[in-house]
Protein 1
Amino acid sequence: MRSSLIKPGVLLAAIFMLVSNAFAQKDQSGADPAFLHNLATEWQAHWIQIGYPEDSLNHPSQYFSKQFNSLGKVKQARLFITSRGLYEAQINGKRVGNAYLTPGWTSYNKRIAYQAWDVTDLVKKGDNILQVTLGDGWYRGALAFENRRNYFGTKLSLICQLELTYTNGHKEIISSDDSWKSGEGPIRQSSINNGETIDHNRLLQVDKPVKIVDDYAGKLVPTESYPATKHEVFKPINVMTTPKGEKVLDFGQNLVGWVMLKVKGKQGDTITIQHAEVLDKAGNFYIANLRGAQATSTYILKGQGEEFFEPHFTYFGFRYIQIKGLRADPDPEDFTAVAVYADMQPSGTFECSNPMLNKLQHNIQWGQKGNFLYVPTDCPQRDERLGWTGDAQVFARTAAYNFDVQYFFKQWMVDVALDQRKDGAVTFVVPDILDGAAGSAGWGDVSTVVPWTMYQVYGDKEILQQQYESMKKWVGFMTQNSTNDLWNKGDHFGDWLSYHSPTDDGSDAITDKYEIAQCFYAYSTQLVINAARVLGKTEDVNYYSALLNRIKDAYRKEYTTYSGRILSNTQSSYVLALQFDMLLEKDRPTAASYLVSKIRAYDHHLTTGFLGTPYLCHVLSRFGHTKEAYRLLLQDTYPSWLYPIKMGATTIWERWDGIKPDGSFQTTAMNSFNHYAYGAIGDWMYQHIAGIQAGSPGYQQVIIRPDLGGGLTWCKASYICPQGKIIVSWKIADGKFTLDATIPKGSTAVVYLPNAEGKNIQQKNIPAGNYHFSN
Ligand code: RAM
């Protein structure tokens, strides 16, 4: 039986026992956050480092070991462990736990998560050996742009303590200290961007001293997020030789993880596996879009029978691999790709009568799987892979439909607040590795949008409490950078990657960056008001409500015309103004019709970038233009959601035209094929096609309101809300609309049935149960 991660509640009790003397007065069940966060001071263990001169060029993995004798029968064994760098632990040669790339990625210098593993089954009576391997990982390995090294520190270190409880009640703690040994072994180098080298000829040699380095100034906190674990496995669907003569295997899905390899060969044979997302027009292996990331596994064989390899301290975003160094043609049986991502529970399903939309849903989910690995990353493959705040903000609502992401975001938001600058600016990426670069509209708003979205979805007020100061600080930053309530300073990313015309016909859809900034200034202020209401902070409600009025007034004076146009006159200008209620009520329908005319002007194509796209179809639906929303959704020429699918995409692309119609690529400088941001349409599909909406925070009231259109004849979807599973299934047959719905216990529902004329028949306060409606 394998060791398992102790979940936060249990973990608390376990830690409680560990430090019970110091905290004898505390109640085990009370999850007092201060108690959790102060634990670091109670560790008995020391931080330890290797005690020999390091090969500072190659950075081979560091191995630590401790032999211990267990005196009696062990009733319970728990390993508390974390590291600066990534760790993998083994007891008596068996791997501890099912998580990879532990301890995950946080703003390491401020806090590091530790894990508590139940290892009772791994410890035996008598002699035992606890061994831990460290890799550079995010802590000091080649990371992000230009393979920057040593971002968080220059030295790896380990802290762990193994708590043994014997059947006779006696307790013993084995801690990391100067009795441990250190040394080297088969992993010769590893980094997030570049991959890993394993040499099976290098025996484990762990006989050198260690050094105690109790210099960690941050906090050790228990893991409350979802660890990265192995999920789906894939066998190659095709083994080919490309026109250039490369041996390439295709796994059929752009995924994130690695390849497990079985191989036979001679001693010293060197096998390399390089990873790629796409093949080029000619069918050759294409890696230029990975920029500086080598993304290569290198394996050196011992040459004695069948050998097994997989990397430990890296990951790749790929669909294809190129293999070199085999003595024979690759046998597909020897290769297994495994998807590695956050162990979050699936929460939503969506299926309808249009196969292209089903494929879109598949791609959205795979975009999420590939980029939810401890932090929400922009992309998983090139020399970047960062927690870009804008991307996370636009995708959060969709993410929560597909998977339970409550603790994933709740934990990451702690780092958002920790990395937030003193002046309130929210960093572009979290954990921040860009030296405090911060303050872009639409990116910094992650600080308000994500807590509010999570509250809407899970009804959990705690995240609002946790983030409230950070939310206010962000609005304070915008206020401070405003003149007469206009936020018109600083550098912004704007409506990132919006439409640029392939010909110089002047049709680029550029939205003024300060016009956008003003919309987000208003939106974040609104969300602070909402949070203040929930938390009962009346003074704040008053202060921010007055501010919001001034922000909107200033917007209307600066950016709108007498006839109701908006300065930049792009789809995104109208979308943001309408979504965030920037215009007077009477002027909104006119603005919505300008939006529609802007869509028609591009022959029913969207022109929005990262910031406009998530709200585009929502705004169309809200103002009675659902038909136009469906038309956009079903568009399959550039720019559109379905165009990449026509071009063979299995994930969401960074750009609307990552691969152009003639098969050529967009710029190598920025062309990821696994970027979830544009997948934010998923939210509209659940809310408007399936019709599953939250009528109140945490779905105590469910709204079921499908909007028919796009020639769809059926849709089946489900969503696990905090009360249980909501199921909606509707169809149109013989001119008749029928809907089946399941409402979970603890929720009531309002169901709207669309009829042929587009009028709605409403059924209110429907209690839990299964229902059949027809119209
Ligand atoms: C790119 C990232 C990300 C985006 C920023 C502005 O490099 O991939 O998606 O948020 O830039």
Protein 2
Amino acid sequence: MKVRTRYAPSPTGFMHVGNLRTALYEYLIAKNQGGSFVLRIEDTDQERLVEGAVDVIYNTLKVAGLKHDEGPDIGGDFGPYVQSERKDMYLPFAEQLIKEGKAYRCFCTKERLESIQQDSEFGGYDRHCRDLSQEEIDKLLAEGVPYVIRQKMPLEGSTTFVDAVFGEITVENSELQDQILIKSDGFPTYNFANVIDDHTMGITHVVRGCEYLSSTPKYNLLYDAFGWEIPTYVHLPLIMGKDAEGNVSKLSKRHGSTGFEDLIKEGYLPQVIINYIALLGWCPKGNEEIFSLSELEKEFCVENISKSPAVFDYQKLQWFNAEYLRAMSDEEFTEIAKPYYDSVFGDTPYDGSKLTAILKARTTKLTDIPDMIKFFKELPDYDKELFVNKKSKTNLENSPAILKTVTERLEALSDWSCDAIKELLINLATELELKNGTVMWPARIAASGQTVTPGGAVEILDILGKDETLRRLYIGLEKLS
Ligand code: GLU
């Protein structure tokens, strides 16, 4: 049988990394088996809908590269793919169950339901309407009394199912309520629509968060009632976050960004987020951790999904990001870094490839770039104490003379290139019988106004250009005098 998975988000807000992981695993399980990945929008709970949330879903799948084979925007043989457009499909299924004696109409009023709620003996609905006589039912129908349709849950025994990740799970049927399938307005409940859709769309694997594990027996009793084959269930482990004290709890905003779009805004690459969340609950066979999406399609297998909670580690995500950035070609890096370069330089011309040469191996997040390079645009105000550096053997006594000579020599340099600047500074160090660092340090401090810079003195001077370099070196000399 052809594998068919579905990602069935309810458009109730932003795309949490947990939702994206579900989508990714659905996608990978389908692609790994040459199957189809279906997108279905579950908008049955109209009150919970959030405007714009559907666009977020489309955009996220697109940016993440999780291309669906069927869905509201591209159609397919099992449409419509939005629950609200399927609304007429559900009632006949519920009526079929009534006919077969597996469901019943419940005419209980809200007031009655509320009063039994308070009566702890039932812990829910007391099945008052389950055994109404046909006469009573006909009378209530004739009077136009509103009703819901409930499933007759078995009163005895237990329901067992095997989840591909969590293993065998059994619940006592006595714990299950006679669940509502159709509400008094004729619309299905969320659970009912979900089962009807999965079956009528030919879904073979239901992949979702483990918060749905406890509802699954209810879903299965519906499959049983219809005599339908139960899909393979793949419930995914929780995603946790760790706070500063090392306490672990369900991943939330206080741990860091939890939305896909927010992580992108923070400077993480889409392919990094995908690679990282693939590992949140799934363990590859070997030691390799870096996987492109197409590699994941080949490697991924349900057997290696773990049921233990996964911890979202932002440090690890940064490590992945840095690795991906370093592995890029200079051209690629320059292209994705361009908006960040532009944000610093504005209309001032700059050479992106020179910036890339000093930044690519040092960048963890693209959003760190502006702070790393803003000294190129404007020399920060700095203290002359920065010229003092033990390792480079520079201090306030030797720095003025060294910087003065450096300035004079650079002034005379006609070919302004990395090679020429480097040669000049190294030759000068040899001539003065100093360590290279003793010559480079004052030049770098005067050129950048800071002790930590991407790139050394040579690269910085080259990027600044001759005029700007000299202007800054004179400022340094002034400070030191
Ligand atoms: N619509 C549900 C959600 O967004 C998905 C439930 C399922 O996958 O069965 O959480």
